[in-house]
Amino acid sequence: MSSFAEKLAAARAQRPSKDVQVVLDGEITAERDKLLERLEAVREAGSSPDARLGKKTEQAELVERIESLTEAARDSIVTLRFTRLPGSEWAELSSHYPVRTDANGKPSVPLDLQYGYNFDAVCEEAARRSGVRIEDDVVVEMVVETPTKKKPNPLNEWDELFDAISGSDMARIRDAIYSLNEYEPALRVQALVKGFGAAAGSSRN
Question: How many domains does the chain have?
Answer without folding.
Answer: 2
